[in-house]
Records
---
Amino acid sequence: MSRPWFVSLVVALGLLVGLLPAGPISAQESGGDPALGQPAVFIGPEGVEVARITVEEIVDPFRDYASYSAPQRGYHYVLLRVAVVNEDDRPLTFDPATIAVQDRDGFLAYATSISRTEESTATDPDLAYGDIEAGAEARGVVAMPVINGADLIRVVFTPARDRLVVLADLREPSGAQATAAPAAEAPTAAAIEEPAPTEEAAAPPPALATYLNAEFGFQLTYDPALWTTQSSDPISLVLTDGQSVAQIAGSATLPTNAIECVADQVASLSTTAPRQNYAPMRDASGAALAGGDAQAAFATFTFAGGRGDVFEQVMCLTLPGDRGVVTVIHNGPLDAFAAESAKLSQLLSGLDLG
């Protein structure tokens, strides 16, 4: 199976993921990256401590999901139990979709929305997007699809395009000086008892649908229980999950340079009548949510639609062999951006450029 490498770029929303440096990235009080069960210190733009984020446990693989929410073929779910303490004197807006696991090859798998069994959800609620009041704590779980056989080495937090904080180093300590922390203080992945598969989780996964674009030689495999088809033709496929709409299409007329392709798309979309006040979407630091290179690029915008504020992600992926580009236009309610962006990442994990 070929790894959909471009999905990491799309999901990161301008974080330009790729190979991460092997050394420490965040400055922790201990002088290194925290182990599983130890808090990571998050320093805000003003240079003061804003929050402490602890990855308490990791379940790999996680199987206690609903039968209709099985991972794509060749992938499995990883579950993290996370605690976030707001150390600031102001509310902290926290987005679980900015948490990811990194494998030894440098690829990132970001948190996404999955349906778990009733028992699992009752025991471990999801870590929700929203404001954490000053001095308060938020706890919950996040899950992400990980390619089978991946050797996970870190959990990271990417709150802005220019920030990456290591939340947990998952590698075993090496050398004679290494000492294991008490199990009660720093649980390890091996120490976590995986929940026994329930009868619901053991059910066979739902039948997947495949859209084959013979004109441009790419295909998309997806779960029709999560995404329903609005339209399909030899050039494009339009899907909806009830909240947002994603259009995946091939083009031989747009530039094959992905950055130029996105610019052309944006120039055209921004002048259409339904898109009023079309403007770049920005992160907390004011940086536009856009990025990429000649092979894969994207930009994110907001506009005033007929039913309220809307987000729009515009993406271009260069097809190999000078076959043109694949474009993705994804839009939905602005207040659902984090959740819908995570759902799109899961959808695009089934995209094969051929």
---
Amino acid sequence: MFDRHIMRSERHPSPALASEPDQLGRLRTLLALARQPSGPGRSRLLSEISDLFLGRWAQLGAAEKSVVGEILARLVGAGTPATRKAIARRVAALPDAPRLLVRILAEDAPDIADPILRQGGLLPDDDLVELIGRQGGAHHLALAGQRFLPARVAQALIALDRPEIDQRLLHNDQARIGSAGFTVLVDRAQSDDGLRMALLTRHDLPLSLMNRLFLAARSGERRFILEQNRAELEDAPPAALPSIAETRRRRLRDAYLIDLLRQEAEAGFVVALSEVAGLPRADTARIVADPGFEPLIILGRASGMDRASVSNIALLLGGADRLGLAEVHRRLGLFDEVSPRVAGRLLTDWGGRPCAEALPIAPPANDESPGEDTLARSA
């Protein structure tokens, strides 16, 4: 029966020549054939219909598209892998592809599903999230490369906690990852150099989250983060100078911190410094232990310390033994390069409390601000 119908189709290879009512009636006959559970010509019928109609999809009316979509959805399982792959490529290019057919192809073998999963806009978010729960790694990787991937779907992929998925998402410039997704990835990047580098290349990574990578970053990455802060704050009006009374108070505070280190009371120093910066002690201890001293210099600048105080603290923390005296002084050049406002923005994004003249002009939004224990968790 299928073969007889195909022979009739071959004698009339161009449905465009038929009137619309005749064509719709012919499609309904094909649908009746497709609904039969089996038949020797199902695979050939699938190829015949896809060749006849997918190539001229834009010319079909809504009713015709509906019937063709149902026919193909019913027959596609009978096709060979090569036929299904060819259909998937053609369906992926249709702006209004039949949803049921798309769903079937999206859950086919990975090499068949690939063009469907990579092309955005074919399935709603709910379908894609459900697919993530049902399918395996190859489908996930293909989906992570989808054009204009919605943030909700990206977050479902991030929840899988698979490094290769995270990397594929971050290298997909058209994926919408969103603040919630970026927050999870920033936490993971505290101990993953490759992930941190991929995050820093994203043009849509919020600055407040980028700043939370600073403590884990390498020297060159830290310079890059500082450059991004300078670019955002370069037009900010100059900060007001502290009063004479405030300057004296800070000098007494800094002298107290230096005396603690001279007495080799490093634990007490960490406690006092954490109170100065408004950071948890675990985060402050991490900053103090950093071998490059950049976080300490940022903290000092944001807290209103002068250069001499920061230099003394670095030397008393063993900077000369760690790096050599000349290198310590070279690195202290960062103190002069970074404005109080840039340093204050970083300290704010770490969860700390900068001094008045270092307060950022535009504090980060609540949904992007780190919690008080964020850095402690990543230490």
